[in-house]
Every structure is written in structure tokens, then in C-alpha cells.
Amino acid sequence: MKLPFRFGTLRQWHWISSAICLAALLLFSVTGITLNHAHQIESRAKVTEIEATLPAPLQAHLQRRPPEDGSLPTELAGWLEQTLPIKLAGTTPEWDGGELYMGFPRPGGDAWLSLDLDSGELLFEDSDRGWIAYLNDLHKGRHTSVAWSWFIDLTAVACLLFALTGLILLYRQASHRRTTWPLTTLGLLVPILILLLSMH
Predict the structure, then answer these.
(1) CB contact set of 136 (below 8 Å; sequence gap of 6+)
(2) Are residues 86 and 78 in contact, defined by beta-carbon separation less than 8 angstroms?
(3) Other Cβ atoms within 10 Å of 2 Cβ, number
(4) Which residues lie across from 123 on neighbouring strands?
(5) What pLDDT score was predicted for residue 2?
(6) 47 and 125 in contact (C-beta within 8 Å)?
(7) Which InterPro entries match (predicted)?
(8) Do residues 114 and 100 touch, judged by C-beta distance below 8 A?
(9) Residue (of 94, 102, 93, 107) closest to 145 by Cα position
(10) More confident site: 17 or 113
(11) Which of 129, 125, 100 has its CA nearest to residue 111?
(12) What is residue 15's predicted lDDT score, i.e. its pLDDT?
């Protein structure tokens, strides 16, 4: 069988792809363990609550001119960002009559606020579940950015290239190492057997 690669080029592709995905493989391997044992790892969320009152002039202005298109008025957005540790860019306000609700999900935690225009009462709550939850959410791509989603996809491509070039290198070296194919076959059969034997 003649392969469409020169040996040196194939080895270059193999080590380059391994170098590119090394850090990501370490991250996803560690978080694979923490996700698999999530029920055994205790995680207590650190909850921060903030209560505030909408300034009377701003409240009166919003009551006179309530948002008609469901958007967030500029004056209110500015006050919220000054009062709370939040960034409103990319968030969508939810209006129910005179009550505003906004959620701020993120890896490893989430936050939300509720504001009643009639009473002017604001309630904000932030939950931080810690570093393990943060890394687990990165593993799953939960509440992450588009850039992180692309990073996961590109890492998967690099890992695929690493595995395929490794397989071709195994084929090239198999005649010198008798255990090559038995070990490769074992690596393929073990997960299949576990799935078959553990199915109910």
C-alpha cells in the first residue's frame, strides 16, 4: 500500500498537530475526569445578593415613557452598570408589564436581576460555583463565546489529524513492533465491550 505522504512530512503533521492540541487535550482530559465524578465532588456556590432602589427621577421618567419595543432604555442601562457588577452588552431584557428581568449565564456561574418599575425595587443575585464548575462548563461549551466554540471545533480537527497521522505511522512501524496491532485492536474493542456488556 502506497500512502500519499512522505514519511518526514507525515511525522511533521503528527508532531505539529500534537503541539497545537496539547494544552486543550490536557484541559479536556482533566475536566473529563471531573465531569465523570461530578456527583462526588462537592461544590458550594458562593452567592452574592444586592438590593437597591431605582433613583426617583429615573423611575418617574421610565413610568412616563415605558419601553415600547422591549429594549433597555439608555438611562436605565447606564444606572444598572454603575450599580451592579455586570456588563449589559449582548444581553436581552425581558419585560413583563412593569417588571424587568435579565439573566447573565456564564461558565461556572450565573447571575440575574429583577426590577419593578412601580416600586423601584431592584434585586440582583450572583452565584459562583468555583473553578471546577468553570472548567467543566468550558469542556461542555456551556454559556461560552463564539470564539470558544470555534476553539473547540479547531481543537477537535487537530486531535483528529493527530490520531489519523498516528495511525498511519503505526502502520509504517507495525512490521518492527509485533504488539502494534494487538494494542490498537484492544484500544478499539475495550470501549465497545464495555458499552455492550453494560447495556440494560
Answers:
(1) 31, 34, 35, 38, 108
(2) no
(3) 4
(4) 51, 114
(5) 54
(6) yes
(7) PepSY_TM-like_2
(8) yes
(9) 107
(10) 113
(11) 125
(12) 87
Residue 91 CB contacts under 8 Å (≥ 6 apart), including other chains: 102, 103, 104
| Sheet with 94-96, side-by-side order of all strands | 46-53, 121-128, 109-116, 99-106, 94-96
Task: Report residue 191's pLDDT band, with 50, 70 and 90 as the boundaries.
Answer: confident
Q: What are 115-130's pLDDT values in tens digits?
A: 999 999 999 999 999 9
> CA gyration radius for the chain?
26
Contacts of residue 169, Cβ cutoff 8 Å, sequence gap at least 6: 10, 11, 14
Report d(CA 45, CA 108) in Å as an integer: 9
C-alpha cell at 67: 419601553
> What was the pLDDT predicted at 8?
59
Question: In the beta sheet, which residues pair with residue 48?
Answer: 126
- Condensed to tens digits (0 to 9), the pLDDT of residues 72-89 reads 989 999 999 999 999 998
Q: Identify any residues that bridge with 95 across adjacent strands, giving them in sequence order.
A: 100
Pair 124, 50: CB distance under 8 Å: yes
